[in-house]
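INFO  loader      accepted 1 record
INFO  loader      residues=275
INFO  predictor   begin
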Amino acid sequence: MQAFAKAFWKAPITAKFGVLAITVYVLTAVFAPLLAPYGQFQVVGSQYLPWSAAHPLGTDNLGRDMLSRIIFGARNTVSIALIATILTFLLGTVTGFIAATLGGWADQVLSRLVDSLMAIPTLIFGLMLLTVFGTSIPVLICVIALLESTRVYRLARAVAMNIVVMDYVEAARLRGEGLWWIMTREVLPNALSPLAAEFGLRFCFVFLFISALSFLGLGIQPPTADWGSMVRENATLISFGDPTPLIPAGAIALLTVAVNFVVDWFLYHTSGLKD
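INFO  predictor   done
INFO  writer      dumping tokens
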């Protein structure tokens, strides 16, 4: 903790902004029921009420408080994106390490399967799968993890290919160590830096992907508060000069920028360029 605090105070202003912004998002998501003046499903007035003391950001197309919906949207959108990103990395990293460690036919089968999935545009493939299997949150998470894990697989395999040829990995093979031991004890510790940076970037892509699906009506389903669907539901206000629909869009953009600032700082801090 002290090492992080020391590195944080030496970090550039962009990294500090990113860390503080992410902290605000996390605290908002955790304490959403305490921060929101109303419930996320509660109808509190007429539709499209203007900004007022009772409703600082007005109401939406059903008369629900927009500020409360945005606060709860932080919990729903960010938490689902984080779970999907973790599942993405588990699937992509494990398969990538297996392909690099075993090589041969296992590498060929997994790589050709990944190439086949990547040949189909991600958004179109995602829309097709969600149309077939439904739009529940577990299905949404699994579909996104499947599609995004192909990118993680390519990175994990490329990094692991440079590690499995090292002498210490060959020594582990000669000692009779198993596949899982080599992957977790030899490959993973030496691949953490690029994978950790990729985790931040992949979270941004997953976050934006979920928001895009929600905007198209196949992501997080109503009445659950979600920033992508909130933009779609209230887009008509822009025609009347009301910037309210831009606020959830701005929340999406701000979190994406903040995560990228932190990832850039992490890469700079771990790459040795500072030396």
